[in-house]
Amino acid sequence: MMDLHDGHIRDIGIDWPRLVRIVEETVRTREAGEYASPLKSYLRFGDPANRIIATPAYVGGETALAGIKWVASFPGNLRRDLPRANNTILLNDPETGRLLAVLRSNLLNGLRAAAVSGLALRNYADVRQPEEMRLGIIGWGPIGRLHLEMAAELLGSRLTKVMLYDLQAIDPASVPEELRERTEAVPDWRTLYRDSNAIATCTVPAERYIDEPPPAGALLLNVSLRDYRPESVAAVKNVIVDDWREVCRENTDIEQLHLRYGLAESDVFTLADLVCGNEAEAIGSADQPVFFNPMGLGIFDIAIAGHYYREALRLGAGVVLADGDR
To answer: How many CA atoms lie within 13 A of 66 on its CB side?
Structure first.
């Protein structure tokens, strides 16, 4: 059995175009019916702000793995100088059920989130063909930083401006050196919101705060799912989700739009529309905002974890553990 942690993942390396292709291929595998993905389970106790989420999944196709993601989210950890999330993924052989790998990696959680956003960002940029991309990131934690790295690699010279906002002061040294000349930390989220054509919300807000309609034609990467007051996005027609059953619950912005404005599953597009033939309609015309809401599907966690497991085998990385008593 293989044991992998963040250090091993970093040593293997982060290839954003490849991770996005893995997400894309997993969408195709799902559309072919070669998957199993029951709804996530939420374990809550004590402080209602805390939760531990279990996400089991099987992915066929090139991945051909089963497993489960077990991730704890304790927002109060930030006050203790501890990571908010603690993430573990187990991988099983789908033929025998044998445990193949344990990946104790918060980094993997962020890589999956940013790679899924990357699929939407790549396709948006390819369809709309903007002359320049101005990226705004609200929340400069680990997920926000990975989104900047992803966008910089996927967009290249098309990324002309980056604006960052966080409740805490942003250290310029936390921005990759090659991006600092294009990057500005702003004192108000509204500044970047109004001047960006791609906006990633990577926060853990106590309450919803975005109360303005989105800029015309902007891509809203709603990573944290609970930043937008429903009235601010109620008029958006191009709404994309990864899975309606998953995302229309747990007080997400999609659930609030469903409850207050009647948004229904038939009104939204999915990642399958982006990948399997309905891309232009899902992205819409140049003046229409696109509201992307990925709840985070276990199939993507398993596929990306499987990539790193197989790379570790190929490269001789990680720690091989004994099977234990037989």
So the answer is: 15
For 293, the 3-state DSSP assignment is: strand
Question: What are the C-alpha distances in Å from 194 to residues 189, 198, 202, 214, 220?
Answer: 9, 10, 17, 8, 12
Separation of alpha carbons 26 and 258, rounded Å? 27
Distance CA 100, CA 90 (A): 8
**Per-residue CA distances from 104 to 35, 60, 112, 138, 143 (Å):** 24, 23, 14, 27, 17
Alpha-carbon distance of 32 to 55, in angstroms, equals 21
DSSP strand pairing (41-43 vs 51-59): antiparallel
Residues 231-271: tens digit of each pLDDT: 999 999 999 999 999 999 999 999 999 999 999 999 999 99
258 close to 264: Cβ distance less than 8 angstroms: yes
Q: Maximum CA pair distance of the chain?
A: 63
Q: Which of 175, 190, 123, 122 is nearest to 144 (CA)?
A: 175
In order of their start, the domains of the chain are 2-109+298-320 (3.30.1780.10), 116-293 (3.40.50.720)
Please tell me the pTM assigned to this model.
0.95
Instruction: Return all residues near 80 (Cβ < 8 A) that are at least 6 apart.
Output: none
Q: Cα–Cα distances in Å, from 128 out to 124, 214, 223, 241?
A: 6, 17, 21, 19
Model pLDDT for residues 129-183, shown as the tens digit of each residue? 999 999 999 999 999 999 999 999 999 999 999 999 999 999 999 999 999 999 9
